[in-house]
Write a structure and sequence with these properties.
Length: 288
């Protein structure tokens, strides 16, 4: 059996339930779980420039695209609030709540996950977990690192609070000393052959194949890319960004939405694919 786990990033104070509903209703109706990675206290007002990747290259967007245009420049933090529409919507449906960073910032060109000061990291984590607890009645078990990379100092802190992390690539700098040789040896196995997860003790580190889904990619090639990955792997963490389907936060991209729903139905129909949550995956991998 092959496992597929859905991960949608950047849900925050600004997310409209209708956006997630448009993307995930077919999965929810089929009784499948979707991992929603939630930013506890999204913060605007930071010039990130080239760190915006294709949004910089194509639109010269200086501020984070994860906030709606009218809030991007505001130097302000917008915490998730209990009883807000988005919080109630997530709680009411079969979503798995993941924590996505703290404020999703890139201060002075340093991505939040790459901070090195452990007391600062602990402080941000503590504050953000209080928000998660207030909103959802519990802290998340899995952490999704903004921009998909984390410093060893961040991971040292995260390891104490979560069952695992989802990021792009696991290398020896991400793991504890006892696991370094095992992690380093993965370096010599190419992407097509490498098993996309790594146990560092009880801590599960999950890799994903990069931006398969992106508003900048050729829509006609996406399903093929998903299928190709599953040809050579038994696990796919499929990463999405809901706001890319409504760029720039107001117009549904019908072609992209149609492509997405086609991929969802393709995965639901495959008899050799099981769509599961991060916590189910943790248990399944633990016993194999
Ligand atoms: Zn993000």
């Amino acid at each position: 059996m092959k496992y597929v786990v859905f991960r949608d990033d950047d849900t925050s104070h600004f997310t409209k339930p209708a956006m997630l509903e448009t993307l995930y209703r077919p999965l929810l109706d089929a009784g499948k779980s979707v991992g929603i990675s939630v930013i506890p206290a999204i913060t605007g007002g930071q010039v990130v420039g080239p760190l915006n990747g294709p949004f910089w290259d194509k639109f010269r967007l200086e501020y984070s695209p994860c906030l709606p245009p009218e809030y991007r420049k505001e130097e302000k933090t917008f915490p998730l609030t209990p009883n807000s529409e988005i919080v109630e919507y997530i709680k009411k449906n079969n979503y798995e709540i993941l924590q996505h960073g703290f404020q999703h910032t890139a201060e002075g060109g340093i991505h939040e996950g790459m901070l090195k000061n452990t007391s600062k990291i602990s402080q941000l984590l503590n504050e953000s977990q209080q928000i998660m607890n207030r909103c959802f009645g519990k802290a998340s078990e899995f952490f999704v690192v903004p921009w998909d990379d984390a410093s060893k100092e961040s991971l040292k802190v995260l390891r104490k609070h979560f069952k695992g992390v989802s990021l792009n690539r696991v290398g020896q700098r991400h793991v504890t000393p006892l696991s370094k040789i095992r992690a380093a040896s993965r370096h010599f196995v190419n992407d097509k052959k490498r098993i996309p997860y790594f146990w560092d003790g009880e801590f599960l580190m999950l890799e994903h194949p990069g931006p398969v889904l992106s508003m900048f990619n050729n829509f006609s090639l996406m399903k093929g890319a998903v299928a190709e990955w599953l040809d050579s792997h038994d696990l796919l963490i499929l990463v999405n960004h809901y706001w890319e389907f409504f760029w720039d936060w107001n117009i549904p991209n019908l072609e992209y939405l149609e492509t997405w729903h086609d991929i969802v139905h393709y995965l639901l129909d495959r008899k050799d694919v099981e769509i599961i949550s991060f916590s189910q995956l943790y248990e399944k991998l633990r016993v194999t």
